[in-house]
Design goal:
The protein is mainly beta. 11% of the residues lie in helices and 47% in strands. The chain contains 1 helix and 14 strands. The chain is elongated. The structure holds calcium ion (2 copies).
Amino acid sequence: MAKRRLIALGALILAAGFVLVLALGNQSDLGAEVVACDAISFNGRQLLFTIEGVNDTVYSEQLASYLKTGTTIKVYQNKGAVVQFDSRPIEPAQLKNLKLKCIYQNEMASAHPWLISVGQADDDAHIEVFVGAFRATQYLPAETRPYFLEYRDGVLVRSWTGSRLMGLAFSAARYIDVDGDGYDELEIVEHGIKNGKRYSEVGYYRLYGFIPYRLNEMGGRDE
Ligand SMILES: [Ca+2]
Ligand SMILES: [Ca+2]
């Protein structure tokens, strides 16, 4: 009787161990609250960039809408199989089965980040990272602000963080190879006022040196 109990106990311990191994095998560092995210496969690695943490909800006068902002930019490496995402930008719900290891994080709460997109826009191996921030500048009230960053040697560095591009605000942005030349352009939905009327239009940008230029209407703004 005691022997049978011992065998049953042994089987239970084995089963529990198996479940534990399965759970650890699927372990992901991903935080609970993902505000926005994007991924890129590069040099055989799949990297995921997220904005995480609960910050505040801000109101954009130019967009006449609210934006949910996060606190921290994080970079993960997908340790599991490379995943093809079926939407861009990626919906946070698509991340739940990935095996993600956090390899970098940067607290950016004061910039109120709400949008992130990553791409490869040149021959330089560093990954281009565009972040939609929301803050006031010295001369302008709080609004959506474009941050062109780079993920370089394992850290995020700033390339250009001006107050705005052609429009007064933007509501969406993503890196996409729109002309098929193998390099991503930044596609951005801009909003502004022309001749007293509100407009929205899609612009395509690329950095030349450190300055963004609009490809479909050359001329950046760095005020
Ligand atoms: Ca690059
Ligand atoms: Ca291109």
